[in-house]
Amino acid sequence: MYKLGILIASVLLSITQLFAQTKEELQHYGDSLYRQLQHIDDREEKALALLDLSFFWSDYDAEKARQYVAESEKQLGDKSSTNYYQGLLHFYRAAIHFDIDPTTSKQQYMQADSLLRKDIPAKNSVSATRYRARLWGSYGALVQREGKAHEYVQVLLEKVIPMARQIGDSTLMGNNYQNVAMALMNLEEYDKANTYYQNALDLLKGRAGAEEQRLTLFVNAARNALFSKQYSYARSLLDSADNTVKSIPTSSYLPIYHNVAGSYWETQRNFDLANFHFEKALAGAKEQHNNDMAASILFSQFEAFQTRNQPAKAMAKLREVLPYVQQQASLKNKQMVYYNLAHTASQLGKHEEAAKWYKEHKLIVDTLLTDKGEALTLELEKKYQTAEKENELLRVKAANQQQQLAIQRTRLFAGIFLLTTVLLAMLSYMWYTALKNRKRLAAQKERLLQEEIKNSKQQEKLKLFNAMLQGQERERSRIARDLHDGLGGMLAGVKLKLSAVANREAKAQPQTASSMDLYTIINQMDHSVNELRRIARNMMPESLLYMGLEASLQDLCNAMAQPQTQIDFQAANLRTDYDQSFLIAVYRIVQELLTNAVKHSDASQIWVQCSEGDGHFYISVEDNGKGFDPHGEETKREGIGLSNIRNRVEILNGHLEVDTAIGKGASFHIQFKLAE
């Protein structure tokens, strides 16, 4: 499926608070800043304020930015000729040309660097180094725009970050560690990117006034963790971002936070939470008038609904994306959306509409191919025209020179041969590309078939396990009933008869050794009856059938508690009308988890929680024991009873999460969706 990669990239580059402002608001804000700096008496300080104002306008009005640089130079007077201020003037002029003339911008940055390196007064040395770090960061960004991402990373690591470290500016270091991480993330080097995100977080940890930077870091690091499929780590980063948001609830980065959170919950198949975050992100993007971000979020929602196999809702989201891409000049984005519209309409059985969108998609593809073809044709025509001019010149000069004419013909034949070679190479490449695409599609179909076979085998396995469980529960119930009603009654009758014999002997004669043995046998019979009832209750607890789930689980926790292991049970909002099969399944899951914890964890405390809310049933069993390695060989062999638990959960279409590590206890969280 096509992805809106270009839209997502543009969102990351454009998200700032000022993008939510109108042109009139920007003008009002800029004029307000200009009026404030008029009250500055010191000419040097006023000149620096004018340069900062120029930097503000460089993104919106290049001419106004130039005027403020010129006014700053006048304020400096003779000082403007010093290396330090000449370097600053070149720095701010480079910022003006950053978007409109990257080549000039790079030249200005290098002139600024050469001036800020030499003969700088001691009072300006730290500031000069900070400016050099900033200009190299901007220079690297221009290099990255040219497709040289690795060179950009090299500039940050060898130039910017060492300068920031030299002057002890941890905020500048943290921001550029994040820039390195984002560049590596775009290069799909996720492990390296994670290291630099962590370096940036360590620098900004606990720093006052750095909430916005930390929020940006948590969100981008979470995105990187999702790319590398480290879902638990992504969840912890998003939790940290959520805590940070509480202190800056008006942050302009909130839409991106919600968008990444939505992507996380989509990977967890919690589509309700994913949609909640996507809607929050979409509302924020619209509030900031950021159309690129809104389109990206809508497309994420479309993908979530496709994953959820809800093509009607997916189509609705695509229709919302459509106006955004139709307003843009990007043919690639239109190609992506039209393709998915055609595919989704086909899923819905709307074949006429699917044909319409496929036709639009084909037109875009043809246009892209035509543009490439026209560019190639123009290039060939230029070569041909050049050859013709050379031929004409040779014909004029070589009227009577046959040798020169022969040379000219040779060149012409060489040009024709080169043209033919180029055309053949192009046709070969197109054929190779088509063949490669066909092989890739065949491989994809094979993978899908294998996946379907795997899913079918898994369903058969679950059906077999379910049937086995049902048979086990019926047999347990029968044995428990036979033990309780049959053998239990017989033992109780024997006990009563022995008690009667003992009472007669006690009345007939004083206590003897034989009568004392008789009482000992009666006492042992009591213990046997109690043990038989305990076994019968464990096989099919009566409290589960007659008193409900909460009472039976409480009895189970009390029965399994030991002097060295305390078990705390809590229940919330549990009903009394659950299906018997559901009651038995929940009871067995908790029983198995408690058995594992008591046998293997060496825990002193176990917590069991069961609750119902929002149409879901939740089970949590946690302990403070020794834990285990979730990726170890023992766990892979399911040697501690996890296999039965996983199968029971899958039969009920539930979701199991295991959070554990060696020496840190274990937590099991289970969630079932209840039938409406």
Automatic annotation (TrEMBL):
InterPro entries the record matches: HATPase_C_sf, HATPase_dom, His_kinase_dom, Sensor_HK_TwoCompSys, Sig_transdc_His_kin_sub3_dim/P, TPR-like_helical_dom_sf, TPR_rpt
Bilayer-crossing regions: 412-432
TPR repeat residue numbers: 174-207
Domain of life (superkingdom): Bacteria
Signal peptide coordinates: 1-20
Domain Histidine kinase: from-to ranges: 478-676
EC number: 2.7.13.3
Coiled coil start-end: 377-404, 439-475
Keywords: ATP-binding, Coiled coil, Kinase, Membrane, Nucleotide-binding, Phosphoprotein, Signal, TPR repeat, Transferase, Transmembrane, Transmembrane helix, Two-component regulatory system
CDD domains: HATPase_UhpB-NarQ-NarX-like
Catalytic class of the enzyme: transferase
Catalytic activity: ATP + protein L-histidine = ADP + protein N-phospho-L-histidine
PANTHER family: NITRATE/NITRITE SENSOR PROTEIN NARX-RELATED, NITRATE_NITRITE SENSOR PROTEIN NARQ
The protein's name: histidine kinase
Native organism: Sphingobacterium pedocola
